[in-house]
Amino acid sequence: MDQLIFLDHAGRRIPRGAIDSAAGMLYWTRNGPPNGGAAPQALADDLSEAIGIAIGRETGRMFVTALQGDVVSMKPDGADRHTIVENAGRLTGICYHRLHE
Questions:
Q1: DSSP letters for 16-27
Q2: 3-state secondary structure of 38
Q3: What is the full DSSP assignment across 51-91?
Q4: Cβ contact 81:71 at 8 Å
Q5: Residue 93, Cβ neighbours under 10 Å: how many?
Q6: Residue 94 pLDDT > 80, yes or no?
Q7: C-beta of residue 81 within 8 angstroms of C-beta of residue 39
Q8: β-bridge pairing 25-28 and 82-85
Q9: What share of the chain is helix, strand, coil (3-state, %, to 5)?
Q10: Per-residue pLDDT for 6 more than 60?
């Protein structure tokens, strides 16, 4: 999996997207509605300030952080969604790494 890094106006790195090259999919977080034109499919549109995203290809799950401190896990199509961490403080990104036993 490749990570996609965006820069904010101050030049700080913000992890806001992930590429699943095996599936040929690009996922990203977006605050607010689309700016017009053809809208991409929204997998979860009720996350408060979603900012970080990672893909666990081996698990078949995506992990999304929200700025208020939640971590949400879901399938890449948005189904089977679970909040796995709540109110953990300001979260601005996430990285997935599978530990081998």
A1: EEEEETTTTEEE
A2: coil
A3: EEEEEETTTTEEEEEETTS-EEEE-TTS-S-EEEE---S--
A4: no
A5: 16
A6: yes
A7: no
A8: unpaired
A9: 0, 40, 60
A10: no
pLDDT higher at 13 or 77: 77
Domain ranges of the chain: 1-31+46-101
Six token digits for residue 100: 């081998």
Alpha-carbon distance 51 to 21, whole Å?
Answer: 21
User: CA Rg, the chain, in Å?
Assistant: 13
Reduced to 3 states (helix: H, G, I; strand: E, B; else coil), residue 20 is strand
Q: pLDDT by residue (tens digit) across 34-87?
A: 555 555 667 776 777 778 888 888 888 989 888 888 999 999 888 999 999 999
| Sign (positive or negative) of CA dihedral 57, 67, 11, 38 | positive
pTM for this predicted structure: 0.72
Q: How far apart are CA 61 and CA 46, in angstroms?
A: 18
